Amino acid sequence: MYKYLVFFDLDSTLFDKNSQVTDEVAAAMDKIRAKGGLPVIATGRTLYEIPETLKKTKIDTAVTSNGDHGIYQGKELFERRIDPHTIDELDDFAKQNGNSITVLDQKGKGASRHDELLKKACAFVHAPLPKLVDRDYWYERPIDMMFVTTTDLDDVYEEKFGDRLSFYRNSPFSIDVVDHGASKASGIKQLMEMTGLTGIPTYAFGDGNNDIPMLDFVDHPVVMENGRERVKDHAEFVTTTNTNHGIVNGLRHFDLI
C-alpha cells in the first residue's frame, strides 16, 4: 500500500520552459517512490505525446486527456470516447468561426486544417504540428481528447456544446475539449476507485484552469508561482515557479521527499 499519492500536471508544472523534465525533477520522482509514495501524471496531453516523459520519470500511472483516459502500472484502466457525430458538428461550427479542431487518441493526432492559431498553440507547448486528416479519421479511432483554436469564443462553444462536451482554456490560442463531465478530478477518482487506492493522502501540483477540479479534489493542492491567479485561489500552498525548483520545493514543504 502506498503512503501517499502525488498528481502532477505537465505543462508549466512538471515541465521546464522547453516542455522537458529536468534531471532534478526526475530524481524527485525517485525520492517519492523511496518514501513510499506514488507519483502520477495528470495531464491534458495524451500518451502519444509523452513517451519520453514517462521514460525519464519512470512513471507508469497516469490520467491523460484531461480525465478521459487512465493507465495504472502501464496498463490501460479506462477510456471515454467522444462521439464522432459530435466531432462532426464541432468541426462544422469551428469552420464557421474560422477555427480548426485537432483530435487525439492515445496513439496519434490529426488536425482539420493548419490555421495560424494552431501553429501558435503547438509552438506554445513545443509540440509538432499535427498531420491533416479528414472525417474518416475520427470514426476509425477512439478519440478521447480534442482542442479547438480560438482566442475568445470560449462562451460561444460552451453554449453550443456544453451539454455534450467540457471545455478548458489551457493556452492563449486554444481550448481543450473532452467528453461532457470529464476532468482531471473525475479521472483521478476513477483511477483510485478501480485500483483500491482510496483512503490514502493525496497531493496535486498544477498551474492552469484545467487543474482546478483536481486541486479541489485532493487533500493538499499545490499551485506553481507561475500559475494563473484564479488557480492560486484553490491552493493550500503556492510553490516557486516551474523553472525555479517549484516541484522540489513543493514536495519538501510537505515532507514528501
From TrEMBL:
Cited Gene3D superfamilies: 3.30.1240.10, HAD superfamily/HAD-like
The lineage's top-level taxon is Bacteria
Q: Which GO terms describe its molecular function?
A: hydrolase activity
UniProt keywords (A-Z) are: Hydrolase
Q: Which Pfam families match?
A: Hydrolase_3
Q: Which InterPro entries does this UniProt record tie to the protein? A: Cof (IPR000150), HAD-like_sf (IPR036412), HAD-SF_hydro_IIB (IPR006379), HAD_sf (IPR023214)
Read off the NCBIfam families from this record: Cof-subfamily, HAD-SF-IIB
What protein name applies here?
A: Cof-type HAD-IIB family hydrolase
Organism (species): Fructilactobacillus hinvesii
